[in-house]
Amino acid sequence: MVKIISSLQNPLVKNVLLLGEKPRARKEQNRIVIEGLREIRLAMTSGFHITDLLYTPELVSDDDLKSLALHDNQTELTEVSRDVFNRLAYRSDSGGLIALAEPRRLVFGDLQLRPRPLLLVLETVEKPGNLGALLRTADAANLDAVIICDPQTDIYNPNAIRSSIGCIFTMPVVTASSGDTILWMHAAGIKIFGTALTATRLYHQTDFAQPSAIIMGSEANGLSTTWLKGSDDLIKIPMLGKIDSMNVSASAAIVIFEAMRQRGFR
After folding, report:
1. What does the angle CA 39 – CA 43 – CA 47 come to, to the nearest 5 degrees?
2. What is the pLDDT of residues 33-59, one digit of tens each?
3. 17 and 70 part of one domain
4. CATH number, domain at 173?
5. Tens digits of per-residue pLDDT, 4-16?
């Protein structure tokens, strides 16, 4: 029997709000909040377990609801009023669906790399919106994995999920320390290309056909000394205007798709 909730004081409603706002609550409960039909479908098809599905009948079609409910019969279905949904929803076009799911915490041993892997490594990423944009680029290029080193934001922040349009679920994502990541890549024979304003080699003069990792630093500080010293080579994008850098997601896209061009977009 489906539960029906119309009160903002309901414990489940309060908990969904808490999980959306507090990284500590997400960690303690091992739950994340996913909003929107597309994002929930991507999570499900990528093997994430949806524990709870909240929906508003006026906003979601029966066919869409049934397709999600039938995908995992262990999901708890809860109908909420439109007023409750509007309080829970971050955006107005999320289609009347909000899910709670168990996150994935991958480690290096979980990755299944191709013979010539191409990886994106992000050091101390701070802004969930930037993380989401970077994950979209990684998905578009079908990278082997994204590695987030010493993150300054929860990778399952609801804004990161929204801005990634669900690519957080389609991409293998590992979080690790910078030191451990450098050791792992050296052992795996992956060439490390750090991006830095001090580099002399331009990105398009670099051989990305070999097993490669592209390292992006924070917008505020760039790469740390750990990565500047740990990289096999340092590269840069030529800047011809008045400023010396671009948004990190734009920079990553430029370098990644140069690598893809060299690989014949395969």
Report:
1. 170
2. 999 999 999 999 999 999 999 999 999
3. yes
4. 3.40.1280.10
5. 999 999 999 999 9
